[in-house]
């Protein structure tokens, strides 16, 4: 359970800075505990790309270059390894046409820099297959890390639900709530949206790691098939606390011996 002093509305500047300083060590420990496959980047390497390399390349109104399909795939891999792994999303993202990816993101960012509106930018980016509001917020965040927060489970729990695990729909409304809460905290403490994201990760992972629920992000190509992810079905059931995050399998009654 997260101490009340570390809830987002109570946290002090000194506490925030202390938790932020703990992010790298925590991430390294998680990276070490999750060995990568041969030829695969470690989580620590992906984290460096997400928070340093990608921000240097794209984090300005006039980026060093336009974001490409491979950049999106690297960021998606970071997202899945940093949170809960869902291979379906990577397959969908990979299936996008490379030119369509770069053109779609460039168009969304051009509109964003003219009138910075995260919600509208997300609408443009989610035209890509496998990209829902959460992943779209990640792509937008590396372009504007100071003002745009990534829609992570940890950030939503900490900023919007008193640091408690809860069902998340990963829709535009929830992101607006998250981004609004992040902006309020950023103004109060004088910090960036990206730093808030990191601190939320530390707070939740250190104090509530067993309550982090599986990530379920809707994207139009999946929903059009009419299938419902198993995690989404779990979220529709009554949520009774962190210990009930995983719904136990239902026992099947035997039909044998019945007339």
Question: What's the SSE blueprint?
Answer:
Elements: H1 13-21, H2 23-33, H3 43-58, H4 69-82, H5 87-94, H6 98-114, H7 118-125, H8 133-143, H9 153-160, H10 172-189, H11 193-208, H12 220-223, H13 230-236
Helix pairs in contact: 1-11, 3-4, 4-5, 6-7, 7-8, 9-10, 9-11
Region (Disordered): 210-259
Biased composition (Polar residues): 215-230
Features:
single chain, 259 residues, mainly alpha, 13 helices, 0% strand, disordered C terminus
What does this structure look like?
The protein has helices spanning about 15-20, 25-35, 45-60, 70-80, 85-95, 100-115, 120-125, 135-145, 155-160, 170-190, 195-210, 220-225, 230-235. By secondary structure, it is an all-alpha fold. Helix 1 packs across helix 11, helix 3 (about 45-60) packs across helix 4 (about 70-80) and helix 9 (about 155-160) packs across helix 11. The longest helix has 18 residues, at about 170-190. It is globular, with a radius of gyration of 19 Å. The model is unreliable at about 210-259 (pLDDT under 50).
Brief rundown of the structure:
With 259 residues, the protein is mostly helical. It is 57% helix and 0% strand.
Low-confidence runs (pLDDT<50, min 5 residues)?
210-259
**End-to-end distance:** 52 Å
Helix percent reads 55-70%
**Which strand-content bin applies to the residues?**
under 5%
Give the SSE order as H and E letters.
HHHHHHHHHHHHH
Nearest-integer average pLDDT: 84
Instruction: Give a count of the beta strands, DSSP E runs of length 2 or more.
Output: 0
Q: Pairing-aware structural class of the strands and helices?
A: mainly alpha
- How many separate helices? 13
Shape: globular
| Radius of gyration based on Cα positions | 19 Å
The biggest sheet amounts to: none
Region (Disordered): 210-259
Biased composition (Polar residues): 215-230
